[in-house]
Amino acid sequence: MRIIKNFSTAMTLSLRQSRAVQLLFVGVLSLGLLVQTGCDSESNLVEVPELPTPETPTAPSGLEAASGDSEVELVWDTVDPVDSYIVSYSVYRTTSSGGALPEEPVATGVSGGSYTDAELENGTTYYYRVTSTTGGGEAESEASNEAAVTPFAGPPDRP
To answer: CATH number of the domain that 92 lies in?
Structure first.
C-alpha cells in the first residue's frame, strides 16, 4: 500500500496479511491511498476529501522572562488544542520593543510552555513574543504579550 501525501509518495507500507492500518498525518490537507493487490497490479487511487483548515489558535498569555548568564528562560501559559490539532509554539526575539514580528522565529515547534534561549550577549536587552501554531503550521495566532530581559554574568567569585 502506498500513501500519497499532497500527490507525492510519502511512504510505502508492505502488508503480508489483511490488516487494518490507521495513520495520522498532522497538517496534511490532502491524502490519497493506492492499494496494490498483487505484484504488478494496482487499484485505483482513492482520494480522501480535503481536510478543513483548523481555526486559528488563541495567543499564548502570561509570557515572563528570567535572565541568566548569556541565556534567557521564557515561560508562558499554554493554549488548548484547536479542533483536535496539536498546538506548538514559535518564539520571536528582537532587540527593540514593539513593532512587527521578525520574519523568522528563533525557535519553532516548541511543545510546552517554556523555552531557553542561549548564547546571548550579556548586557543586551532582548524582547520576546510567542505565538501558538497548529501542528502542521496551517494557522498561527496573534503574538503574546512582550517580555523584556537583559542577560548578565553573575558576580565574580571572591578571592
So the answer is: 2.60.40.10
